[in-house]
Amino acid sequence: MPLTAEQQAEIDQQRATPRQTLRAVSEGMEAHLYVPHPVLDHGLVRVVDYMGDDAAICQAARVSYGTGTKSVQNDEGLIRYLMRHWHSTPFEMCEVKFHVKLPVFVARQWIRHRTANVNEYSARYSILDREFYLPAPDQLAAQSAQNNQGRGEVLAGDEAQRVLDLLREDAMRSYDHYEAMLSQDGQQGLARELARMNLPANIYTQWYWKVDLHNLLHFLRLRADAHAQYEIRAYADLMCDITRDWVPAAFNAFRDYRMDAVSLSAQGAAALKRRLAGEAITQETSGMGAREWREFQAVWG
After folding, report:
1. At what angle do helices 54-62 and 72-84 cross, to 10 degrees?
2. Is the CATH number of domain 5-133+202-259 3.30.1360.170?
3. Domain assignments of the chain as residue spans, ordered by start
4. Binding-site entries
5. Cα–chain-centroid distance for residue 71?
6. Which of this chain's residues are annotated to bind FAD (predicted)?
7. Potential cystine with 139: which of 61, 135, 164, 219 (Cβ 3.0-4.6 Å)?
8. What is the pLDDT along the chain (301 residues), one digit of tens a residue?
């Protein structure tokens, strides 16, 4: 993830000029502020700004003055109660603004989360860089036989190299034509807003993505999940680390009650109770469909 000298100088200047403030400060988040964290081959995530911390969640829940902190133990207990009972509003009092550099096809998945403010780099006004996402060999996989949305076995040998060569050659050829259409050398040159249509979905774009903590956690629950596509999961995993440093009590509660929790339907709960009572349960007698039964067995054996 190469940064230009100008970009690095701007980041260095931002981090070298701290300012006195009366607002809530998270020491963990201060360490991330402005720092570009690399993702994939050319991507990045960096925190541009944030508001609030664990105490702000408790302050909002209690509608109190000052920091709202009774004690660390009391605050953690309150946050866990809020998370456990799906009281989401206090978590909306914290916000964060990310600068993200990501492939266009990942951005199209990401934008499905419509509960954020987004401002994307415009290829109508600027010329995109010649930067494309090319998967690492261990991420080149065949279509899954069980999951229409997922990957199966990793490609190997000549086939993997052939796919990588095609991806690279097609991306470079498209960008060559993009430059040729834009060029005003001996011609008028095509407008940027039209020339961009020929660019591939693995070219990198950038945006500012501002979101409150409640909706960020919802994004992370879906995109940091093992079933999410690897490329967007790489961003979500990094953002989990940042969020853990920002609001550790809230993130730990989120991990316990959302990410690592198990959800049961009414049929699943009844089947579990019957099993604990010593009854032999089958899919046919459980009231669950075949897929739900497989998921039930994966958790409960």
Report:
1. 70
2. yes
3. 5-133+202-259, 135-201, 266-300
4. 89, 109-114, 120-124, 196, 212-214, 218, 223
5. 32
6. 89, 112-114, 120, 212-214, 218
7. 135
8. 567 788 888 888 888 888 888 888 999 999 999 999 999 999 999 999 999 999 999 999 988 665 545 566 688 999 999 999 999 999 999 999 999 999 999 999 999 999 999 999 999 889 999 999 999 888 888 776 766 677 778 888 888 889 999 999 999 999 999 999 999 999 999 999 999 999 999 999 999 999 999 999 999 999 999 989 999 999 999 999 999 999 999 999 999 999 999 888 999 999 999 999 999 999 999 989 998 999 899 888 8
d(CA 249, CA 255): 10
Active site residues: 223
The pTM assigned to this predicted structure is 0.89
Provide the annotated binding site for FAD: 89, 112-114, 120, 212-214, 218
Binding-site residues for dUMP, in ranges, read 109-112, 120-124, 196, 223
- The one-letter code for the residue type at 86 is W
